[in-house]
Design goal:
By secondary structure, the protein is an alpha/beta fold. Helices cover 26% and strands 25% of the residues. The two termini are 41 Å apart. The N terminus is likely disordered.
């Protein structure tokens, strides 16, 4: 599996007389000057002319509009022409990825390697999509390659603003025989193909919350699993945070966020520490977990008590604490002129970064959501508010046709509950709105009851509903 890269290369070697024209502007891809979601079939290697009828048939069946190779093809012009022309005649864009290690918008290498070893990471695709979207530009739209062939992953990729992606399909998906998994994925591909103009023109609704993406060294991946797990913990509490790369930001860039969540492993350079200080001084709410910064990247300690005045330590020798002492053990909050700095010493995101997430008892899930809300709900109220008993990841996108599309992922078993919209106008809605199920992988239903979206949601569900 290759690491997803945020760049696309197409060269003159692929030019045919009438190949599909692929361009990019305003953060969107265009095929023959029509806005498009770039939906590519991943090829495991360099195809031969004999492979092309099967490739073209698979693209038609799965509603792909592009073919992508993970290899840097070095073929003769004659061989290239034999591949290029049939694909162009079928209306397919041909992509290559000569640099599969490009860093912009990628999943951090360490995280990606962890996934390659077969470990389950429930929110890896979601945070990768959010990071790619954060680094996209007008002429380089957000892309994510080689995503898992699962409806939930594909749903969250598009919901979070990815404009080009490729699916890693296995032989069981490419055969003509149908199964529940391939049927649900094909139907989702077909829905995106039918609504690509609306989806590409839609606008993601984000909360005023940023998840700080920082590593002590520019060459090191960010602190994982706290980054990925923290993202998952706030996502299932109803938040849609921005992922904010601190090193690339100025002092003032953070001020648009009412609250920031900073996964820290204790080391930070002075320049970026200063950005957090300025943020808090200007009225921001900084939440740090699971430990304060105490030293620079080289391990040399420096004074950070302006933001984190106390170091919370575990009791010695297994000693117990009183209830008030146990409360202080969880963390503390201090006033920093116009803002606040909160330290949470519980790594609440850790269970969300591995398959432990699926084994958490309901009471522990609820306790984590309540902790997240106690830290963030006051400074950064949510736009989407699920019931406390409902654990789903939800992204809203404002439709150019009015109203909003809700992309809802349920990674757990069957659930029932409501989603409230505290400010309907923020989602282009009036007080009296309706809901329509646009896509469901596994037969979920939705209806509006007393101004809330009541869900009866199936296990392992990917769901798109339209609010109007």
């Amino acid at each position: 599996m290759d690491s997803p890269d945020a760049s696309i290369a197409w060269t003159s070697a692929f030019d045919a007389e009438t190949p599909p024209s692929l361009t990019a502007a305003y953060g969107i891809y265009y095929i023959d000057n029509q806005p498009a979601l770039l939906r590519a079939l991943d090829l495991p290697g360099s195809p031969t002319p004999a492979d092309l009828p099967g490739v073209i048939a698979a693209c038609k069946r799965w509603r792909f509009n592009a073919v992508r190779s993970a290899e840097d093809w070095r073929l003769s012009e004659r061989h290239m022409t034999a591949i290029r022309d049939p694909l162009a005649s079928a209306g397919l864009v041909l992509l290559t990825a000569p640099d599969n290690n490009a860093s912009a918008g990628d999943i951090p290498p360490l995280l990606w390697e962890r996934g390659l070893r077969g470990e389950v990471r429930p929110f890896a695709t979601s945070i990768a999509a959010a990071r790619a979207t954060a680094t996209a530009t007008d002429d380089q739209p957000a892309t994510l390659w080689h995503i898992p062939a699962a409806p939930i992953d594909l749903l969250m990729v598009i919901g979070r603003g990815i404009r080009g992606y490729s699916l890693a399909l296995g032989p069981d998906h490419l055969t003509t025989s149908s199964n529940a998994s391939s049927d649900a994925l094909q139907r989702l591909q077909a829905w995106f193909a039918a609504h690509e103009e609306e989806v590409t023109a839609s606008v993601e609704v984000r909360d005023t919350l940023a998840l700080i993406d920082y590593s002590p060294s520019p060459d090191a991946p960010p602190g994982e699993p706290a980054l990925e797990g923290g993202f998952g913990a706030v996502a299932v509490a109803g938040y849609n945070p921005a992922v904010f790369e601190l090193r690339a930001a100025s002092d003032s860039d953070l001020t648009e966020y009412a609250a920031t969540l900073f996964p820290s492993y204790g080391r930070m350079d002075l320049e970026n520490y200063g950005k957090l200080v300025v943020y808090a001084l200007r009225g921001g709410s900084l939440v740090t977990y699971p430990q304060p910064v105490t030293a620079g990247p080289d391990g040399v300690r420096y004074r950070t008590s302006f933001l984190w005045p106390r170091v919370v330590q575990a009791p010695p020798g297994g000693a117990t604490r009183t209830p008030s002492e146990r409360a202080s053990q969880v963390g503390y909050r201090v006033q920093v002129r116009e803002g606040t700095s909160t330290l949470a010493t519980v790594d609440f995101g850790l269970p969300f970064s591995t398959d432990v997430y699926f084994r958490l008892p309901p009471a522990q899930r609820l306790a984590i959501r309540e902790l997240v809300l106690s830290l963030l709900d006051d400074p950064a109220p949510r736009q989407i508010v699920p019931d406390n008993t409902l654990e789903v990841e939800t992204v809203a996108r404002l439709s150019p046709d009015g109203g909003a599309l809700l992309f809802i992922a349920n990674r757990l078993g069957p659930q029932q509950g409501a989603i409230r919209v505290p400010d309907p106008a923020a989602l282009n809605l009036g007080s009296d709105f309706s809901v329509t199920v646009e896509y469901t992988a596994n037969g979920s239903t939705a209806e509006v009851i007393d101004g809330s979206v009541q869900l009866d949601i199936a296990a392992s569900e990917a769901l798109v509903v339209r609010l109007q």
